[in-house]
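My current task is to audit a protein record that another person submitted. My question to you is simply how this chain folds and whether the tokens agree. This is what I was given:
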Amino acid sequence: MMDQSVITKLTTSFNELVYQTPDEAIEFWYARDIMAVLGYERWENFSKVIQKASIACETAGGLVDNHFRGVTKMVQIASERNKENINDETYKY
């Protein structure tokens, strides 16, 4: 069982990272934002977890596209380029 203080800390962290669609008021998170909160340092490792979660969602009869969406987000590096990102509505509280 997880310690209550860990749950409280994670809840606070997720609440700070939440986005909301303006027209439908749907909450979502970008995977690259939450990966560090969940203890992942490398995108390659976290993307494998997302793939496994997508398979589990489908196996359970869920519609993967309703919970996992691939999106492109512009980021500022040395030059601008697209960076893959995935939002995941399954992290709702």
DSSP finds four helices and four strands in the chain. Residues 9 and 37 are 10 Å apart (CA to CA).
